[in-house]
Every structure is written in structure tokens, then in C-alpha cells.
Amino acid sequence: MKNERQRTRDLALLSAYLDGELRPAERQALVARLQTDPDLGERLENLRKTKLTVGYLPRVRAPHNFTLTPEMVTVRPKKAQPFAATMRLTSALAAILLVVLFGAEFLITSGSLARLQMDAEPMMEAAVVLDDAEPEPLIVWGHPGVGGAEGFVEGRGGDGPVTMAEPVMVESMPVEVEVAVEEEIILEESPVVDSEAEILPEEAPELLLEADVSPPTEKEIEALQVVSGMDGEMLILGINLEEGGEIISRSADTVVVEEARPAWLGILRVLQVALGAIVVGGGLAWWLLSRRG
Amino acid sequence: MDESALIQAALDGELDAFNTLVLHYQDLAYNIAYRLMGEHGAADDAVQEAFISAYQKLAQYRGGSFKAWLLRIVTNNCYDELRRRQRQPVTPLKPELPDGEILDDPYWIKDEGFTPEEQTEQAELQAAIQKCINQLDRKFKVVLVLVDVEGLDYQTAAEAAGTPVGTVKSRLARARERVQDCLQGFWELLPDIFRHRDEETI
Lengths: 293, 202
Prior knowledge:
The structure holds two protein chains of two kinds. By secondary structure, chain A is mostly helical.
């Protein structure tokens, strides 16, 4: 280590000696060592040859004059820069907005789908009794246990096909049946036990539900298909427990919900396409301008 | 040439005054740039940019050696140009020797009084020396070129390289040693040249 450091220091001294850059004291000390150290003398000779060799390279003259013209030294305003910066900013903002829109759409549509799915289950059963062409009122039977002891349940819908519902066993349950045809509510009491009450509106096809006269027990009620409605209402085969005896009019607009696409979704799509075009176009313009600049 | 007066005139906006300085230093600047970069095109670009930059930064000149101040701009521009060319390598359009060595431009090797064979030998030797310089680290290369090629003293070289004199001294010694090692591979080219130079200079 010490030898290496000494060697490097000697090298620097010999090099500077060749150039006449040593202080007088250093020079005298080195000259004294050179007279007694042949290795040091040989190293000095090699350095001298190297210096001469490098100095052998001819001086290259300038191939032309490098004089300046006023155009060269005039600071030219970079016109492309502001435009490029604008393009970059626009592209970045559009990209951010695009991401926000996609995120919002995802959140909204996923929420809507969940709601539609929840709606679809009870509606699917009800939809069986609904005519495709003309939505019919949803018939809601009376609350179990409401009315007399020997009531029966019978409902009649509009033009829809006969429901696939099983006959409901009701013990001694007088039922008030409410049937609505085109917003007209017909209420009819049928206290007769063990008979089928037919309520046939003029324009409504027949819809019969066979039912036992006895009212259902709680256990039986639970056995019925209980589904939770959108608003948390309890529906049993279309029977709303809290709105027993009423008829919920299923107007066309409520049924069509499954089919309709919101208008804002179309606008959103157009916006997304436009923003995508801005992102790509702006980015491309910025890239081209920055390469040129 | 009154250098100070020309600088002052250039500061006052007289481009002709600055161009007088350009004409005075352009060969020196070009030679250093060429030796640092080893290529005419690159040296040309670096020197032109350096003079433009020097004119625009002339107000920052605080006295002292104008030559050292100018050469510092030149060397800095050479480094920038080298970095740029390393990112985008350029293939030189120069003839190559059979062993792959690139010959310099014809006007570079043109030397009256030599036979074609001697000219070829000279060209080979010069290419070998340039190759050894090119292999040096940047910090060693600049002091070697400034002192051994251009013949500047240590003080001016230190100002031009932007390093202390002591650093120049040590770097130059190590640069010479490395070039010496590199030239061992071309020693067959050297004896005649050495004899010729030794007789003339020593």
C-alpha cells in the first residue's frame, strides 16, 4: 500500500518535472534521487517518450470559420413549447376525467344491476300473470287472517295467463278480494265457505286461484315464498303483507324498467369516447412537438 | 489584439468584436474539441455551440484568462456532445484499415514531403495515439489534451478543466501512464518516429 502510494507520488513528480512545473526544492530532491535510482530514471524516460508521442499528433485547424451571425445569437422564442405544454395538460386532464367517468359509471351501473336483480325476483313471479302486451294490475290478496273465519282467497287478473300458483290453504278466512281493472277497484266480499268466488271483470280474462277456506297459520305463511321487495316490503307470492287487501297497480313504466337504458348512459358513452380521443390526440401531438423541439 | 477591449465591445453588443475573438481562438478550440471527441463532425458542432454559448454568457466572464474561460466552455460542450452521441451513436463515414482502425479524414493526414508509404505510417500512428486518448476516462483525457496536445501550462489547464492545479498534476501523470501502456500495442510504429522527434527536440 505504501509502495503504491509512493509510486503514484513519484509518477506525479516525474510528470511535473517533465513539464517544468515542480517547485525548486522538489526539483532538487528529485534530481538527486534520479542520480542514484536507475528505475526512477527509466520511468522518467518512458514518460518522456509518451509525452513526445502524444505531442506528435498534428494540430488540427478549424475546417471553416466559426464566426457568429446575428441570427445565431438571437434568442429565438420557442413557439412550439406553449402549444406542446397545452397539449400535454389537456391530455392529462382528459385522462383523469376519463378515469373518473369510468369509475362513476361502474359504481352506478353495478348498483343499478344489484337493484334490478333484487327487483327481478319478485317480479318474475308476478310477471307470469302479466300480459306482455298490456301490463295488468298486480293482484294482492288479503292479509292472512283478515276477515271472517271462513274466507277464501281468490284473485283475478287482467288478460294474463292463469298463474301457476298452487292453491293456498286458508282456514275459515273471509277474504276481501280487490280486483282492479284499469285503475278501477272492485271490492267484493265472499264470506261463503267452500265455494269459489268468481269475479270476472268484463274485459279481464279469468284468473282463478283455488284456495282453501281456512286461514293459513303462521307456519304456513312462512312456508310461502317470502321475498323481500325493493323497499324492504314483504311479499308473499305477490301479496304485500303491509298492503293486504289492496291492489298494486303495475303500470307499464314500472315493468319496463328492466328493458330501459337510462338516457344519461348514452351521453356518458359519448363523453367517454370524446375524452378518449382527446387523450390520444393530445398525447400524440405533445409527443410529436417535443420530439421536434 | 486588445482582448479586453474586444470583450467589452462584445458586451456592448458588437458582434464583430466577438467574431475577432472567435477567429483568434477557433483553431485552438477546434483542435481540443477534435482530440477530445475524435471526430470532426462532433468537434464542429461542439465548437460552434461553444462560441454561441460564450457570446450569450459573456456577461458572466469575470476577468482572468479569457482563453481558459473559453476553453472551459468548449470542453463542457464536448462532454455534452459526447453524452448526446453516446445516446444516439453515429457511424463515422471513414475508411478503415485492415485491422479495423478508422483512418482520419484525408485532409487530416495530408502532410507535404512524405511518400505515400510514410503518410500511411503516419496515419496509422496518429490513429493509434488517438485511440489511446479516446480510451481514457474523461477527466484524464481533458488534462492530457490540454497539456500534451495543446501545450497549455498547468494553471491555464486547471482553469479550463475547472479543477485545482494539484488535480491536474496527478491526473496528467496517470493519463500519461495509461497512454504509455496503451501504446505498447503499437510500439512497432514508434521507433522511427521517436528517433525523428528525439533528434529534433532533445
